[in-house]
Amino acid sequence: MTKKRQAQYSGIGGQAVLEGVMMKNKTQYAVAVRKPDGDIDVQVEEYQGICGDKKFAKLPLIRGVFAFIDSLVLGMRVTMHSASFYEEEELLEEPAKESEKKASGGRADDIMMGITVAVSVVIAVGLFMLLPFLISDLLGKYIRNASLVAILEGVLRILIFVGYIAAISLMKDIRRLYMYHGAEHKCINCIERGRPLNVKNVMRSSRQHKRCGTSFLLFVVLVSVIVFFFIRVDNMALKLALRLLLVPVIAGVSYEIIRLAGRSNNVLIRIISAPGMWMQRLTTREPDEDMVAVAIASVEAVFDWRAYLEETFGYEAEDL
């Protein structure tokens, strides 16, 4: 099949985890993990989100904030699940305690997960929002031009974000995680381009996708640069407060941009999406066929891609 088709929105999204891939379709998600013995473990669960079906959580701008929180919570949950396959075999040495841990660990795990998500958000806000502001404010004592200081803050924010992504990409474990990230994108691109989901088609698909979380985070950084350039106050405490209070607004706007990008392919959208696609050259790597097989297993657990191809592109996969 050589004909290139226009990509069509499928509604599925995912995330790379330790030696695996999570794929989510509506309220159902699957985590496929390559176990140490080489087999693929697939777990399918439901996740309704922190607000469930509440209508207010689906309003424009507001929905982006809840979508971001849900992605953090679910991401932490599936990451812990995948990591459990590679923990030291302490439980095997104490089988009698296994049932006790299972019975009492659920609530404790939820609490720890909530704490971890909260700490992650605090660190991210401090690193990418407050640190650039504090540095630029310090340099502002020597630079009297307020517009130049605002631009400097924005440049610092972008440099810190890109530098952080580039630095962690040098870690061996992260590089492997990025390969699974590439496998996740390739599977979604394969389906949305109207190709049957198999290893050959996935391997030749692109590893960049406009709805990627990397693009979302970059949009958050870029939108914050624009917002804080135009919103200026003299009071130091108020400056800090605004940078914290406007984080949900910036996240909401960024979500709407990436949501639109995932459903459109006009010239303007391609231009807007370009920086995020470039960043994905750092956060994705070409996977091997074994990794692609794991990603395919995750997709097939929650998404009927054959029905999608027939409904969206008008043909049966067996005909190709």
How do the helices and strands line up, and which of them pair or pack?
Blueprint: E1 12-17, E2 20-25, E3 28-34, E4 40-46, H1 62-83, H2 90-93, H3 98-139, H4 146-168, H5 172-192, H6 199-203, H7 213-230, H8 236-245, H9 247-261, H10 267-283, H11 289-302, H12 305-313
Antiparallel strand pairs: 1-2, 2-3, 3-4
What does this structure look like?
- This protein has 12 helices and 4 strands.
- It is an alpha+beta fold and 320 residues long.
- A hairpin with a 2-residue loop joins strand 2 (20-25) and strand 3 (28-34).
- Helix 1 crosses helix 9, helix 7 packs across helix 9 (247-261) and helix 7 crosses helix 10 (267-283).
- The longest helix is centred in the middle third of the chain and has 42 residues, at 98-139.
Descriptive tags:
4-stranded antiparallel sheet, about 325 residues, single chain, alpha+beta, 12 helices, globular
Indicate the percent of residues in helices: 55-70%
Please state how the strands of the largest beta sheet are arranged side by side.
1-2-3-4
Number of strands: 4
Overall geometry comes to globular
Distance between the termini: 7 Å
Oligomer: single chain
Largest sheet data:
4 strands, antiparallel
Helix/strand-derived category reads alpha+beta
Strand content: 5-15%
Write down the overall mean pLDDT: 88
Give Rg in angstroms.
Answer: 21 Å
Count of alpha/pi helices:
12
Order of helices and strands: EEEEHHHHHHHHHHHH
Q: Which regions are unreliable across 5 or more consecutive residues at pLDDT < 50?
A: 88-93, 96-105
